[in-house]
Amino acid sequence: xxxxxxxxxxxGLMKIVWINIILSGDNAVVxxxxxxxxxxxxxxxxxxxxxGAAVVLRIVLTVVAAKLLALPFLQIAGGLLLLYIGVQxxxxxxxDEGQGKEYGSLAAxxxxxxxxxLVMSLDNVIAVxxxxxxxxxxxxxxxxxxxxxxxxxxxxxxxxxERFPIIVMLGAALIGWVGGETIVEDASLHDVLxxxxxxxxxxxxxxxxxxxxxxxxxxxxxxxxx
Length: 226
Fold this sequence. Notes:
Keywords: Membrane, Transmembrane, Transmembrane helix. By secondary structure, this protein is mostly helical.
């Protein structure tokens, strides 16, 4: 337990916690969007299981993230998957309105959380691993501490979404933004992005606009069919 007396250990732990506070915002949005379609009594379970599993997944990803990011077309596939998730979450919001709404399942919500976090965490874990400087105890401890941060953020977002429905659309747009970023940052597009830095923001904005446009269109169709 000598490492507990090390200044470097505590400084490293503080860096990891701070990084997770900064990087956990989009994850909290995904968890909140997926969990809000559940009955009230299952929302807490989805937030806790989803957050805990997401952090464990992030620890595993830390070991292989650098190699995964070097694989061509992997981030393109992951970005497209995020765009799909964003559209689905926005479309499903139509079912949450009214007294006759249909609830989703706990398993489906947790699955959505894990898939989205898997894609969104590839870049994030590299920053966390760098802060840990190869210290696995520090890494695991720092990520474990981030669990209540994600849970608190998700719970807060659910309450905000219930009060301000426009946040649901903004949350879906955020997922689309990250999806666009993920696609253009693929290893196969490295040279193109290096020569055209503006593509990073253009792709992100396009992803956000696409998710909102398609999701809203599907909402209108579903509403017209009822």
